[in-house]
Amino acid sequence: MVLGYKDMLAEAESQVASVNVTEAAELLGSEEITLVDIRDIRELEREGLVPGSKHAPRGMLEFWIDPQSPYHKPWFAEDRTFVFYCASGWRSLLAAETAQRMGLKTASLRGGFTAWREAGQPVETRAPR
To answer: Where in this chain does the record put each Rhodanese domain (predicted)?
Structure first.
């Protein structure tokens, strides 16, 4: 294997800003940021999500970001910083790097949703589909 996941994470870490739970909580509700949960829908239904965050499944991210895609989501075209999170912060770090390469202002939530929940921050539940 030429490039492993640890190499990819290290590279992304050097390119993408990260915020901790306290910083993210202070930004909640700000007009300048959008929190983006990239976890699988089953994770959201089982564990909840950060209140007010958007959901963008990791597998559709590039298609939802690109305005030329038939799957484009207009909220990705807003002039904001997109703070990505997943369960532990690995997937979201890679997603933030991808979104940044596609022209978005991005950051990643260090420690992900697990750190958010363990810090006692609010959690919004989502009904199963």
So the answer is: 29-125
